[in-house]
């Protein structure tokens, strides 16, 4: 983070709010001319501060109305088991986030589905049939109070 100055932080904050902003509008917003602003954005991309640009979709409009946190305990922690689980997580379109955790469970996943039947199918037919999961605990999300991708800069 020592590479960044106030203009870089302003650029990152602006891009978090709207990654589709034009270079000229971004430059105006952060008090730079267009070319230096463009160079700074490229530098931030090259250094890995900006990983990628995405479109954030409305899951409800796409009929994906059920979300849950699924806590997962593994059968064991050998390399083969972990590789199998990692491969499953990477290929599953239902898993939005998966984090290794300390405590009673090995992982916590945020999962999305169109309805509870699809969620149950994912849990019973997909996740548990991988053969490396000992147990799961599922908490349905009733209402999402906050969801953001913006980091506090």
TrEMBL record:
Q: Does the keyword DNA-binding apply?
A: yes
- List GO molecular-function terms, semicolon-separated: sequence-specific DNA binding
The record's InterPro entries line, in alphabetical order, gives: ArsR-like_HTH, AsnC-type_HTH_dom, Dimeric_a/b-barrel, Tscrpt_reg_AsnC-like, Tscrpt_reg_AsnC/Lrp_C, Tscrpt_reg_HTH_AsnC-type_CS, WH-like_DNA-bd_sf, WH_DNA-bd_sf
Q: Which residues form the HTH asnC-type domain?
A: 4-65
- GO BP term, pick one: response to amino acid
Q: Would you say which domain of life the source belongs to?
A: Bacteria
Keyword flag Transcription: yes
Keywords on record: DNA-binding, Transcription, Transcription regulation
Q: Which protein is depicted?
A: AsnC family transcriptional regulator
Q: What is the lineage of its organism?
A: Bacteria, Pseudomonadati, Pseudomonadota, Gammaproteobacteria, Lysobacterales
């Amino acid at each position: 983070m020592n590479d960044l100055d106030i203009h870089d932080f302003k650029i990152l904050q602006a891009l978090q709010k709207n990654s589709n902003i034009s270079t000229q509008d971004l430059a105006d917003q952060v008090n730079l001319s267009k070319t230096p602003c463009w160079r700074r954005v490229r530098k931030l991309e090259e250094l890995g501060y900006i990983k990628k640009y995405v479109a954030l979709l409305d899951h409800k409009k796409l009929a994906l109305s059920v979300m849950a946190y699924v806590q997962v305990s593994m059968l064991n922690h050998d390399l083969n088991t972990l590789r199998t689980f990692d491969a499953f997580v990477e290929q599953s379109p239902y898993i939005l986030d998966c984090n290794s955790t300390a405590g009673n469970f090995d992982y916590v996943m945020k999962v999305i589905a169109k309805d509870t039947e699809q969620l149950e199918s994912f849990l019973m037919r997909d996740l548990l049939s991988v053969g490396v999961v000992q147990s799961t605990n599922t908490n349905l999300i009733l209402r999402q109070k906050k969801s953001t991708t913006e980091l506090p800069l």
